[in-house]
Amino acid sequence: MKYEKSCGAVVFRWSGDAWNVLLIRHARGRHISFPKGHMEPGELESHTAEREVFEETGIRVKVDRRYRAENRYNIRADIQKLVVVFAAVTTQEQIIPQPEEIAEACWVSVGEALERLTYERDKKILRAALAHVEKYYSRKPKA
Fold this sequence. Notes:
The chain is α+β, with helices and mostly antiparallel strands. It has a single domain, classed as Nucleoside Triphosphate Pyrophosphohydrolase. Helices cover 26% and strands 42% of the residues. The chain is built from three helices and seven strands. Strands 1, 2, 3, 4, 5, 6 and 7 form a seven-stranded mixed β-sheet that branches. β2 (18-26) and β3 form a beta hairpin. It is globular and about 45 Å long. The relative contact order is 0.27.
């Protein structure tokens, strides 16, 4: 069995009266999810998540390591993947999608995100990350 590990973040931004969530649609797989990517040798999970969010969307974040979710699944019968997801809050609005990997990146309401996310496991992670953000962050977060 081969193992792969990726890290990413559910990125939130306060927009007037509600939290918005950053979603991406991958160019190859066409699924809608959160920004994430493979760890580099010697890299910490949180650093991978921050780097991948920036590389895929142009948005700089500092992840909140108090919220960490794991998602395990098989890509194929011989490859198991672990995805570690953190929560992050930003005030940055402008998205600059990486054209080689990302077909679309956008801010959407939490309700719309729950409708658009491809996988049920991502919806569960979003709900838990939102509860964390609502508990620990004011509605006007610092950059």
